[in-house]
Amino acid sequence: MRKCANCSTAKGFTLVELLVVICIVGILASLLFTRVLFYQEMAEKAAMQQVVGAMQSALVIQYGHRMTQAMGPEINKIIYENPLDWLSQKPENYSGELSAIKPEAIKPGNWAFDRKFHELIYVPDHAEYFMPATDGYKWIRFRTRFAYEATGGNKSKASRQLTGITLLPVEPYQWLIREN
């Protein structure tokens, strides 16, 4: 620091010191911002999986109820029903039932049920690192499917026994986990 003629000592930062501090703060802010986006995306994935888990539990309860009540034809109808109808409370981000849904029809971060194809659909809101299915749309489609097991070692369709029911993705999907 220089001394000036009218004062005993000069106070303050030099321009170089100020630029160094601004650069450091900018770098830290950008790292924090990318990390926040990553955690938002992972939180969305966890919330989606929680809803799927609740629907899977409700589906098994419905299946068990129909089996114990000897509702033969009603058991087969279960794969055409909206799994969200079995929950005691639908998620806040449920858009309702539509026919022949396109991803643009659903607000990102919402669920919808396609009445035509009997699919439950979720459109991710934070989908920067979401890998879409083979159709190229950034959505996840689920269908209710019966689970069968071969009886007596024979794998023909006639010798399979119904063992349960499950809610499965129509096509594989993936959220890429990135390292920051």
Describe this protein's structure.
This protein has 180 residues and is an alpha+beta fold. It has two helices and seven strands. The strands form two sheets. A five-stranded mixed sheet has the order 1-2-3-5-6. A hairpin with a 4-residue loop joins strand 2 (110-114) and strand 3 (119-123). The longest helix has 54 residues, at 15-68. It is elongated. The mean pLDDT is 83.
Keywords:
single chain; 180 residues; alpha+beta; five-stranded mixed β-sheet; two-stranded antiparallel ribbon; 2 helices; 7 strands; 33% helix; elongated
Distance between the termini: 40 Å
Count of DSSP helices?
2
Q: In terms of structural class, how would the helical and strand content be classed? A: alpha+beta
Identify the strand order in the major beta sheet. 1-2-3-5-6
The figure for the number of domains is 1
Helical amount: 25-40%
Estimate the global geometry from the Cα principal axes. elongated
H/E element sequence: HHEEEEEEE
Q: What's the overall average pLDDT, rounded?
A: 83
Number of strands: 7
Main sheet summary: 5 strands, mixed
**Percent range for β-strand residues:** 15-25%
Low-pLDDT parts are none
Output the radius of gyration.
Answer: 27 Å
Can I get a quick summary?
The protein has 180 residues and is α+β, with helices and mostly antiparallel strands.
What layout of secondary structure does this protein have?
Blueprint: H1 15-68, H2 72-77, E1 94-98, E2 110-114, E3 119-123, E4 130-131, E5 140-150, E6 160-169, E7 174-175
Parallel strand pairs: 1-2
Antiparallel strand pairs: 2-3, 3-5, 4-7, 5-6
